[in-house]
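Q: Here's a chain of 71 amino acids. Please give me its 3D structure as tokens.
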Amino acid sequence: MACINPDGTLTPSAKKVLFALRTPGTQSDVADLTSMPMYRVRVSLRELIEAGFLEEKNVGYKATEKGIAQI
């Protein structure tokens, strides 16, 4: 369930997560907004942070400029 395709593009689910986190939100917020199961949200958040598309904030997560450009 990778968020980033071999060619470097983002999967549809990764784009949903980034769209949901244009403003700061929690894992629960992302699950509610995307209708994705929590385990998938957690994996997606971890992968998108490692790739520089998301950053962890005080109370949740937020898309970076790099992430917003991918939406």
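Q: Can you summarize the key feature?
A: DSSP finds four helices and two strands in the chain.
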